[in-house]
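Sharing a chain and its predicted structure for anyone who wants a worked example. Both blocks are below, sequence first, tokens second.
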Amino acid sequence: MRTKWATWCWPIKFHLCRPVGRHINMKTPLKFVHTSFHGVGHDYVQAAFKVFGFSPPIPVPEQKDPDPDFSTVKCPNPEEGECVLELSLRLAEKEGARVVVATDPDADRLAVAELQDMGRWKVFTGNELAALLGWWMFYCWDKSCSDRSDVTDVYMLGTTVSSSILHSIASKQGFHYEETLPGFKWIGNRVKSLLDDGKTVVFAFEESIVSAAVVVAEMAAFLDSNRVTMEQQLETIYETYGYHISKTSYFLCYDPATIRRIFERLRNYSGPKRYPQFCGPYGILHVRDVTMGYDSSQLNEKSVLPVSKSSQMVTFTFQNGCVATLRSSGTEPKIKYYAEMCGSPGQGERSFLEEELKKVIDSLVENFLEPSRNGLICRCV
């Protein structure tokens, strides 16, 4: 009879362990630090690393065990960046570990940091991790498949607020990329539907659970065996498929009526039921409002995506190529924004894209969110 750990680990071993990396995992000199932010992830991450042939990751002792007060961190969300990883980075430097993986209290979010030259830490954004993991999962599939023509049955999935980097990789490599609405129920149902149809889903970009942490470790070990860092590989991905510069952040708003008013103003910006045509100096090409089922890019102006009235979500496609989404959180008192500018493969235009993206975001916040007027609280980190 299987123990609970054997029962839990078996599907991870069966579905995720690949011959590409296991022998490397067992010999890698890389050390890993893991923090579970006072949550439930510690035991599961330890077990997953063992299944993949790694030495156990070094736990952050102050944050290893469940603590409902989250006493060592102001905000137990690894997505907040370097400021919440202080204990992890300090321990990594002490132990000579080059990679930190952090899971939030319920272990469905992941952050990754990598030590660079001169002692600098690179904390990857969620979209950067998607680029790396998408590249890695396709690389592993490509190495293991016997017939390259099978690529037409390969899929990756993301959400409407994710980076389009996976779409760019798919366009060049020949597999399929699909978008769903944000939320595990949407992407999970689509994954199941594709699997039921006999398709191969190598990567879906929404929730990480525990598996992503150990797959990141596997990828890092493989790259290290080739004397490449994850940051260097990310740069290679951008050079190959085009720079995808994105920014995700939020404002706190504790008044639901204010949130509704902000979005209703956008829906009647240029008159009754007329969405904005400009945001400051930036012309708007298309507007998609999945809350109302509207999409100006479609001939019938109806959204291809399902109508979802559970939260507010409006996406603007600008004439300069920027795509930006304003969305209310379904679980937190936040208005989130997601914005991205994409370049062409082989074009070294990163600094231009970064500058242009910042200008669009500043205009978006000033003209559409109006933080001072609406009493919005800026993200503090």
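Comments welcome. The mean pLDDT is 92.
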